[in-house]
Design a protein that fits this description.
With 1331 residues, this protein is mainly alpha-helical. It has 59 helices and four strands. Helices cover 63% and strands 1% of the residues.
């Protein structure tokens, strides 16, 4: 163990130096040994410094130790005791406070801290410490004595004192008081003696400062003097000189222009060599300019604070106010227990009385700046003559006193700087015990007032207020009035207390005077009145901010109603609403005579919801009178809520509410005010009208509010014009849309295939919904959140399973209703956009997906029908439609109609792609690499699912028909079995048409065909056309296939279409509305039972089929029979429906294939063969095909010079004449015509075809796509050219050929087509002709 001698051995004072040396050496040794442990070193150092302090009584050791560890309470107490013994009470206080903060219940710290604060004359903190000590021990003598002593020295402490301490006032023992106060006085005396000794000691060492002023008093200003005094003070502080350092004042008679800045000559050094520090007033131009700017700034600030008199002085007599008792209480508060000079005046000693009279005679009249400077200099001389030494405090005090008495000068800013310095060393005495002339001079009181007018200090103004009583004895009446007005004005404006301002008004009015305050501020009646009004508003606003509503209402209600300003009325209404004192508010308005809009709005808030306040009879009477005038809806709203509060919402009282609301709407509507105040009354009325479904009133309210339904124009002179309201409409807002939308939107959403007239919205409601859409909040709008849906539709991206968006009752359906409206009105572009918006919010809505698919189907169909060239983008568009179909059918797998539409859509695309492949043989640039096989499979699957699903027995023929077409298309590559399957599907389709009540007329009119007649004809045509194409194109036949085909043809020959019969048990039905989704006509209510005759015919067919099995039939003969049956069927179709261009084309194609181009040409352009003179009645039953062909008008027979296709009509059934199908048939027909003309050497017709097809037709009149038309035109010209060339080479009559060439050339050049080719053709013939 290491032993430290200084810590283990005692030392007396004689060995102090030796001990100190020993301690230091051991400290060094310990530090060396324990260098590796910093914490131990710090602890050791702390102990060493602490013991050194104990031994040497040196504060520095204690303070160094406390820097290392500030948590040692005992060390803080030892340091404080040592500092107190050294008479450094401020340091002692800091030490005791630190100990008290570390140990709040340490009595030593509390006791010593009470002593120290009292000695330092910190009465407030001493009082607080005494109260704290009394709380812990009520018998603590020192705390009780000093507690009462502090109250005696500073009586205002009793105002803020807690009531529990009042029992200790005067509660102490006299012996304790004498003993403790003797100790306190002794401590104060020691401290004072210490300061005096220190001052004398410093006086012997200190150097003197000098204040050098310009001998020319005209050049002196208070600004320059004040700056000089401040510089001297700063030099004293900078050089650590005592404030009592003597200052010698002298005057410099030299030119002031030779002086330099105050930085060089204002003060000298204050070193120990006794060099005097001088201070001069700067007179150079730069300093003068600074002083001038400072003056201007002070003048400006003073001018802003000036209170001017804007009212007539003659009215002052009528506006005199009496001084309020409350102000007297404020001014006299705290003085009741102390000496009042007025009461002591009769017994005042003569010396004091003479001094009072001398002060009372002081002249405070207006003086110039020169007069005040002279007075300042005289005061300084008097001070020097009295005490031989001038100190900085004396100079500053004299400066402040003289300048503080000035009323007609702008006080410079340096005044307040010097006043702050003055207050640091000259605290104000205790007001109630102050004796003017002993504790403070009268001019210092004026100086304090002036300083507070420049910068407010509440403690100082409290002191000035306490001085009013002695000042009233010492000042003249005018002087006292001036002082009182200035003080009241100061406190009233700074403390926002109108009692002081009213007191100032009383003095001004009673004495009919005006008072000038500091900085030339004139205090007048009008100015104070304006301030009072402004501060009243501010006070009331502050009460509102502090939620002191009851007091604010009480103050405002204390005023007469006529004296309330508009702002005060607003404050009263706000206070009632904010306090939620509903019934009290109603009571207040019962006493009011005038009820403006603000009051009525407050009444509404007091009674609304029916659960707050209840109307009283006086107020109800007033409201009824206002309501009868009809100028505002507010009284009606008040009465409405009053009725609700009285229980008129019960079932038996609803009629009364309805009558009241009807009456209110009638009264207000006639005056055009029913929609005022944002339509509040009508919005309330609508709730009840909708509840009981009063339709006429509902529509009238909506019309007045939002102009929906649109207000009709009425003749002002008509009788009905009196019922028309002309109130201005209100702006539709989102919060109002719910009620409006709920009423007018359909209760059930329309389905995608429902009829327009039965469901959905009207054009008027469409406009309303668009208005509502404009108000949808941004966070509810789907416009910027459609990425997921559009990416799925456009590129097939997956839609997440948890996909969902926030919706409301409105946004959940509004987009679908608009989309449905546009969809059923053929505005597909708009419909598509709104369907995407709806799907963004409702991703699983089947109808939106279905309609989205159909809109894309329509777009594809339009492009196919338009005749424009087909681009690859069209097939990309079909993929978007296909995804919509797939998504919809995933949601509703049993939707048979949509399956049929999907199958149609895919089949059309595949057919278009196949046609494009064929056309690409003529123009390789048009070749598109599109897969069709998958589309055919999808189409077949769709129709098969549609047959298996519940179709509702509507249009069952259609999927059979389409399946037949699919099988027929596959038969071209997959064989006869698919052809047989196709015929079976056609037969089932024909049977479905039969049982649906199809009509079979002899002639089918184009513009008014009977129900399903064209469909039946098309199926009959398809059966025979498919067989004819098979027989024509196939080289090898199977007898089995031929027999089966014959069976089907026999069945077709005996079909209802061929025999023109109808089912006996079926009755035809009138056609119903066109179904926009499927484009077909529906027949309902028909029986599907077959008649006995029909069954018999079917049995006959079966017998014939069996007999064919046993017969050995020659294959060639059987084929010919079949061809004959097919040709007759084609003639049957063409004769029964002349517009059926497919039958005519198929016949012409057959004859062309059989090299009978004359017959083919007859069927195409007519008038080729001489018609038979004998007409045959049974065109379809005879065997003379020449006559039968002659009876068929040519397909292009009605052609004109400008239209090759004149007289050719589309088949008016969309399910048969699919989009793009007509253009494809026209291409095949025209192509066949070109070939037939070529084989018949008809180059003139070929020239005509080339010319007509070279012209671009008008939009909407295109029979061919532009690319197809150009191909055919070129083909016709090339064929014409080849024929002419062949004829020229082979014909002996070349002259005739040349003439034909010339004619064709002339026709082409005249038409402006193939001009270059025609020129080349002529050039090709001329050399040969010349040879």
């Amino acid at each position: 163990m290491i032993k430290i001698k200084a810590l283990n051995e005692s030392a007396d004072s004689s060995d102090e130096d030796v001990t100190q040396t020993l301690l230091l050496s051991e400290l060094r040794f310990c530090r060396f040994v324990f260098t590796c442990s910093e914490a131990f070193y710090q602890k050791l150092r702390f102990s060493t410094l602490k013991n050194l302090g104990l031994i040497t009584n040196d504060l520095n050791y204690y303070l160094d130790a406390l820097e290392l560890d500030a948590t040692d309470v005992s060390l803080w107490l030892k340091t404080g005791r040592l500092a107190a013994r050294c008479l450094d009470h401020r340091l002692a206080r800091e030490c005791f406070e630190a100990a008290h903060s570390l140990s709040p219940f340490n009595w030593i710290a509390i006791d010593r801290l009470i002593d120290t604060t009292f000695v330092l004359h910190d009465i407030y903190h001493c009082f607080q410490l005494c109260c704290s000590a009394i709380d812990r021990d009520q018998t603590y003598a020192k705390a009780l004595v000093l507690f009462n002593e502090c109250l005696g020295l500073q009586p205002p402490l009793s105002k803020d004192m807690d009531e529990k301490y009042r029992q200790f006032v005067g509660e102490y023992e006299t012996e304790d008081y004498d003993r403790i106060m003797a100790e306190m006085r002794q401590l104060k005396a020691k401290r004072k003696q210490h300061f005096d000794d220190e001052r004398q000691r410093q006086d012997s060492k200190r150097s003197k400062l000098s204040l050098i002023l310009d001998a020319n008093l005209k050049n002196l200003t208070f600004v320059s003097i004040g700056l000089k005094l401040k510089n001297i003070y700063e030099k004293i502080k900078k050089n650590n000189l005592f404030p009592s350092t003597p200052i010698e004042m002298s005057f410099d008679s030299s030119s002031t222009s030779s002086q330099t800045d105050s930085g060089g000559n204002e003060s000298g050094s204050a070193n120990t060599s006794a060099d005097e520090s001088t201070s001069t007033v700067a007179a150079n131009p730069e300093q003068q300019q600074k002083d001038k700017d400072l003056k201007d700034k002070e003048t400006s600030s003073a001018g802003e604070a000036e209170v001017t008199n804007e009212s007539n002085a003659n009215n002052n007599n009528s506006k005199k106010l009496k001084r309020s008792q409350s102000l007297r209480n404020k001014l006299n508060d705290g003085l009741s227990d102390f000496c009042r000079f007025g009461l002591l005046a009769p017994i005042t000693p003569e010396a004091i009385a003479e001094q009072m009279n001398a002060y009372r005679c002081i002249n405070l009249c207006e003086k110039t700046e020169s007069d005040l400077i002279n007075a300042f200099l005289e005061r300084i001389k008097a001070i020097k003559s009295h005490q031989n030494v001038i100190k900085i405090d004396d100079l500053i005090n004299a400066y402040l006193c003289e300048l503080g008495s000035a009323k007609n000068l702008i006080i410079p800013a340096i005044f307040h700087d010097l006043y702050a310095i003055h207050r640091l060393t000259n605290e104000l005495p205790c007001g109630p015990l102050t004796v003017i002339g002993r504790d403070i001079e009268l001019d210092q009181i004026w100086m304090c007032l002036t300083a507070n007018e420049l910068k407010f200090n509440r403690n100082e103004t409290l002191f000035l207020t306490q001085m009013l009583v002695p000042l009233e004895l010492m000042l003249t009446k005018d002087q006292f009035n001036e002082f009182s007005v200035r003080l009241a004005m100061l406190r009233g404006t700074k403390e926002t207390d109108n009692d002081f301002l009213n007191h100032a008004i009383d003095i001004l009015c009673d004495n009919e005077i005006e008072v000038m305050a500091a900085n030339k501020v004139v205090i007048k009646y009008a100015g104070i009145k304006s301030i009072i009004e402004s501060q009243s508003r501010e006070n009331m606003s502050q009460m509102m901010a502090e939620h002191n509503f009851d007091q604010l209402i009480k103050i405002l209600m204390s005023k007469p109603e006529s004296e309330l300003t508009s702002d005060e009325i607003v404050l009263l209404n706000d206070a009632i609403v904010s306090s939620e004192l509903w019934q009290k508010g109603i009571d207040i308005f019962c006493t009011r005579n005038e009820l403006n809009s603000e009051c009525l709005n407050t009444i509404i808030k007091c009674v609304e919801t029916g659960k707050r306040g209840r109307l009283k009879h006086p107020l109800a009477v007033k409201l009824v009178k206002l309501a009868a005038e009809g100028h505002s809806v507010l009284p009606w709203i008040c009465l409405y809520w009053g009725l609700i509060a009285e229980g008129y919402v019960a079932t038996d009282a609803k009629s009364q509410i309805i009558k009241f609301l009807r009456l209110g709407h009638q009264y207000l509507g006639k005056r055009g005010t029913c929609t005022s105040h944002s339509g509040q009354f009508l919005l309330l009325a609508l709730t009840h009208f909708i509840d009981v479904d009063v339709e006429d009133e509902i529509f009238r309210c909506f019309t007045c509010l939002y102009n929906f339904p649109v207000r009709r124009a009425v003749n002002p002179t008509s009788a009905s014009s009196s019922n028309v309201h002309r109130s201005p409409h209100i702006s539709l807002k989102w919060e109002y849309c719910e009620q409006l939308y709920h009423y007018f939107a359909p209760e059930e959403l329309p389905e995608y295939d429902s009829l327009v007239r039965q469901t959905g919205i009207t054009q008027d409601i469409e406009g309303l919904l668009l208005r509502i859409l404009e108000l949808v909040p941004q966070h509810l709008q789907p416009n910027n959140r459609t990425d997921t849906i559009t990416k799925y539709i456009d590129s097939g991206d997956t839609i997440p399973d948890d996909y969902s968006k926030e919706t409301t009752h409105i946004t959940e359906t509004i987009y679908y209703l608009l989309a449905d409206y546009y969809f059923k009105n053929k505005e597909f572009n708009k419909a598509r956009e709104f369907y995407i918006l709806d799907l963004t919010l409702n991703v699983n809505r089947f109808d939106s997906w279905a309609a989205s698919a159909l809109t894309r189907t329509f777009e594809v169909d339009q492009q196919l029908i338009s005749g424009e060239n087909i681009e690859l983008s069209l097939f990309e568009l079909t993929m978007t439609g296909q995804r919509c179909f797939q998504r919809a059918l995933l949601l509703e797998p049993t939707a048979s109609k949509l399956w049929i539409e999907f199958g149609h859509f895919v089949y059309n695309i595949s057919s278009t792609a196949l046609r494009m492949r064929k056309i690409s043989l003529f123009n390789p640039q048009m070749e598109l690499n599109i897969e069709c096989e998958d589309s055919i499979k999808i189409s077949r699957n769709c129709f098969e699912i549609a047959l298996n699903a519940d179709t509702g027995e509507e249009e069952l023929w259609l999927p059979y028909y389409m399946l037949g077409k699919v099988m027929e298309k596959n038969s071209k590559t997959l064989g006869a079995n698919y052809l047989l399957a196709a015929i079976r599907y056609y037969e089932w389709a024909e049977l479905c048409l039969y049982v649906d009540g199809t009509s079979y007329p002899k002639k089918i009119q184009y513009y008014n065909p009977p129900s399903l007649a064209v469909e039946a004809l098309e199926i009959h045509y398809r059966i025979h056309a498919s067989v004819l194409k098979y027989l024509t194109l196939t080289k090898k036949f199977s007898t089995r296939v031929l027999k089966r085909l014959k069976t089907h043809l026999i069945r077709a020959l005996r079909s209802p279409f061929s025999k023109q019969s109808t089912p006996s048990s079926a009755t035809s039905a009138a056609p119903v509305d066109h179904d926009y989704a499927t484009g077909s006509r529906c027949a309902t209510g028909l029986s599907r039972s077959l008649s006995t005759d029909s069954v018999g015919e079917l049995m006959t067919d079966l017998v014939d089929a069996v007999s064919l099995r046993d017969e050995r039939v020659d294959g060639i003969r059987l084929k010919d029979e079949l061809v004959l049956m097919c040709l007759k069927a084609m003639h049957r179709c063409a004769n029964r429906y002349p517009a059926h261009y497919k039958s005519i084309y198929r016949l012409a194609h057959y004859y062309h294939h059989k090299n009978n181009n004359i017959m083919a040409k007859q069927l195409l352009i007519g008038q080729v063969m001489q018609r038979s003179q004998e007409s045959q009645s049974g065109a379809g039953d005879g065997h003379d095909f020449n006559d039968m062909v002659k009876q068929i008008p040519g397909l292009f027979a009605e052609r004109k010079t400008n239209n090759l296709f004149n007289g050719i009509w589309r088949i008016p059934i969309d399910d048969i004449d699919r989009p793009g199908s007509f253009a494809a048939h026209m291409f095949r027909s025209t192509f066949l015509l070109v070939r037939v003309c070529t084989f018949t050497d008809d180059y003139q017709t070929l020239c005509t075809i080339a010319i007509q097809l070279s012209r671009t037709p008008e939009i909407g009149k295109k029979f061919l796509r532009d690319s197809d038309r150009q191909i055919l035109a070129k083909l016709a010209f090339d064929s014409c050219h080849l024929l002419l060339k062949s004829h020229f080479e082979l014909s002996p009559a070349r002259d005739r050929v040349i003439m034909d060439v010339q004619r064709i050339y002339d026709r082409l050049t005249k038409a402006g087509v193939f001009v270059a080719e025609a020129n080349a053709m002529v050039k090709d013939f001329l050399p040969q002709y010349r040879r």
